[in-house]
Amino acid sequence: MTSAVQSVTGATDRAQTAAPAAADHEDRFLRLLVAQMRNQDPLNPLDNAQVTAQMAQIATVRGIEQLNETLRAIATGAQEAQSLQAAMLIGRDVLVEGDAITLGAQGARGGFELAEDADRVSVTVHDGTGRIVHRAELGAQPAGIHSIFWDGVGDTGERLPEGAYRIAVSAERSGAPVEARALAAARVLGIARDAQGVQLELAGVGRRSYGAVKQIL
Known about the structure:
Largest sheet: 7 strands, antiparallel
Structural class: alpha+beta
CATH topology of the largest domain: Immunoglobulin-like
Distance between the termini: 23 Å
Order of helices and strands: HHEEEEEEEEEEEE
CATH architecture of the largest domain: Sandwich
Number of domains: 2
Strand content: 35-45%
Helix content: 25-40%
């Protein structure tokens, strides 16, 4: 958490640096107001209501500037904290939207997400030609995110070659279809930051945003 604290401190320093600029604007305004009052026409003096309104406006502007600087400092600190959290995922597997799975010596992992409870869920595994090589009936499943494991054995009972496969998920409730999304399991190789925020470099998937992670395996 040291980096996050330092980032917040640095952002706060920038806010404090910007404060004199806002104070200079207020000082110039007050000088102009005093000069205006000194040189006002005695027969047509300044309206007290106008003076009060002008004072209120400059105070409001300064308050908004300070609020904006504070919010920027908070946002910067939150981004640094998110970067630290993302860095802790390096070397771990996560679930993100996608249908690709990789069969290795220890099997393959994937997942799915249900928009609502389902009384029947079916997962099929497809090879590179699109042919179904394995089908699993998972029965009733609650709404939410679920991880699955495939040992690599096809419907013929034989161990299938290692490599890339794809999964498809179908679900229904009382005969009506339920929205289901396939989830891909991928290992986090590294992190990066761009204009969209913290990004994860995922093996076999590419770059995904930190917020795209559905589950940490």
